[in-house]
Specification:
The protein is an alpha/beta fold. It contains ten helices and 21 strands. It holds the Pfam family Lactamase_B_2.
Length: 430
């Protein structure tokens, strides 16, 4: 029986990855993520999702895929056929970002969700800090690195890669028709590029190579690729330049490597980083014992010694942004954006965030580093893997990936089945 591959997300958009591989009566689902919030997101602030209708509302407006046989029937409308039992399905999550795992809390009870131990630790820490998945925590199953797991006729192997969150992984799915390899999210300019190249080595010659392509067609930081050394250097220099004034920070707290490096830099400059209380609890759950929440110094403590702190306000939904007017802003105050919330100009929250900073007279300086492979690195990756077919997803411009030397490029259609072993890849039922 032919192995089919379907793409239920990540087609023509950044994020929302969902790759379904089916052989016989077994299915493997690689990632089950949400769309990244954009200006067109119907659930952007000030809209607040209804917890009791979270999945049903998303399905109603097309913000979740109508993928049969995977959802918890209790979260669906009565009589919705999506709640019927489907083929046996196992889910494999690449990493702990919402655009890759944000829907796993809606899965049918009993569905195994495999991921790296580090990914599971991050997700459990989020839940402990009150920021768990809508629908609840799934049946997490830790999967060791490069350890094959059989699921019916399919075998799945996790390969650790490098991204801006602990435990990021790619996957190899071995089928009767060959191997499908999936990058998850990947970069080659972080602290551990050898991990990413290890995936290329393991995936070499595969039937189908499904790669993220975030950088394709996307204006990133101008000039040379920024590394983590650049980010840490710029943070240290900014603290020195601010002298005795408060420094504000926007850094993604799931990037634990950067969190720990920034804590060290701040301590060397005689400052403590103060987080929102929920973020501080999340970090402490992951072993960052010196994570300080806002409640400890409080606003008065920060006002008494602004030069002793770096403060990261909790601005996930911007409801607390007027509180910025109470902060002790001095001539050296700057807001350092290191890939934190709001994530960037593509987000609906960004313009309002920038407007508030302008009115309050707080300069914004972006010091982050791109968390994804550059366009050049993507092309090198595909050349090294030399698959029979390459499929760029997780990008708004998949047509800008140009494989050379043999691989066919497939620009998939959403929710359409493709034969893995076809020559070339065939659209099932076409």
């Amino acid at each position: 029986m032919a192995t089919t591959v379907e793409f239920w997300g990540g087609v023509g958009v950044i994020g929302s990855s969902k790759v379904l591989i089916t052989e016989g009566d077994h299915r493997v689902l690689l990632d089950f993520g949400l769309d990244i919030p954009r200006g067109s997101d119907l659930f952007r602030p000030p809209v607040v999702p209804r917890p009791q209708r979270y999945l049903a509302d998303r399905l109603r407006v097309g913000a979740a895929p109508r993928l049969p046989g995977v959802y918890d029937p209790a979260m669906l409308d009565p009589g919705d056929g999506l709640g019927e039992q489907g083929p046996r399905t196992a889910v494999f999550v690449s990493h702990a970002h919402i655009d890759h795992c944000g829907l796993v809390g809606t899965l049918r009870p009993g569905t195994a969700v495999h991921a790296s131990p580090e990914t599971i630790a991050v997700m459990e820490a989020l839940a402990a800090a009150g920021d768990g998945l809508p629908g609840g925590e799934p049946d997490w199953r830790p999967l060791a690195d490069e350890t094959p797991l059989a699921f019916g006729p399919l075998t799945v192997e996790r390969v650790t890669v490098d991204h801006d969150v602990p435990g990021a992984s790619g996957y190899l799915v071995t089928t009767s028709d060959g191997v499908l390899a999936f990058t998850g999210d990947i970069r080659f300019h972080g602290r551990a590029p050898e991990r990413a190249w290890r995936l290329a080595e393991r995936a070499a010659g595969c039937e189908m190579f499904v790669t993220e392509g975030t950088a394709l067609g996307l204006p990133v930081f101008p000039g040379p690729v920024r590394t983590e050394d650049d980010v840490v250097r710029d943070f240290a220099e900014a603290l020195e330049a601010a002298r005795g004034d408060l420094v504000l920070l926007a850094m993604y707290p799931r990037d634990l490597e950067r969190v720990r490096e920034f804590l060290d830099v701040a301590a060397a400059a005689g400052r403590r980083i103060v987080w929102g209380d929920a973020v501080a609890r999340f970090l402490r759950e992951l072993g960052v014992e010196d994570a300080v929440g806002h409640a400890e110094p409080g606003l008065e403590g920060i006002k008494d010694d602004p030069g002793g702190f770096v403060y990261q306000p909790d601005l996930r939904d911007l409801r607390g942004i007027p509180d910025l007017a109470d902060l002790p802003v001095g001539p050296g105050t700057v807001w350092l954006h290191a890939n934190g919330e709001p994530l960037g100009p593509f987000e609906s929250r960004w313009d309002l965030f920038v407007e508030w900073l302008e009115v309050l007279g707080i300069p914004l300086r972006r010091i982050g580093s791109f968390g994804h492979a550059t366009s050049d690195d993507l092309h090198t990756l595909v050349h090294r893997v030399a698959p029979r077919t390459v499929v760029p997803i997780h990008t708004g411009a998949p047509e800008l990936l140009h494989p050379v030397g043999g691989p066919r490029r497939l620009l998939p259609e959403l929710a359409r089945a493709y034969d893995l072993g076809g020559s070339p890849v065939r659209i099932t039922g076409a």
